Amino acid sequence: MTAVPPYPEPIEVRHEKGARRLVVTWDDGHVSTYPLDYLRSWCPCAGCQGHSPTARYLEMTGQELAHLEPVGNYALAPTWEDGHNTGIYSFRYLRGLCPCDECGGERR
């Protein structure tokens, strides 16, 4: 018997440069579309968030996604055009940020 993962995992990640968004298709069939400004504004790194127990929205705009790297089997690490690359978005965190209406809409 195989264990079912407690949280959905991505089966496809697409950076749609022209539309300035990241699209993630999850193994439960859900599709999350993240505008780049929204994703950058929720950077989880300590430099952006400090050491607060709750994440805060930073209102970062205009940054392009330069590179996206997988981190093991649990996260994505974006590099933004300004060189910022210390935010590691776990799949659990990323799914929790899904801005669709079904998931609760954009958080601010």
Main sheet summary: 3 strands, antiparallel
The CATH class is identified as Alpha Beta
Secondary-structure element string? EEEHHEEEH
- What CATH architecture would you give? 2-Layer Sandwich
- Which bin fits the share of residues in helices? 10-25%
Strands of the widest sheet, in order across it, are: 1-2-3
How many separate domains? 1
For this structure, the CATH topology is NE0471 N-terminal domain-like
| Overall pLDDT confidence | 92
- The coarse silhouette is globular
**Rg, alpha carbons:** 14 Å
Low-pLDDT residue intervals, each spanning 5 or more residues: none
How many beta-strand elements?
6
Terminal CA distance reads: 41 Å
Q: What structural class is derived from the secondary structure elements?
A: alpha+beta
Number of helices: 3
The proportion of residues in beta strands is: 25-35%
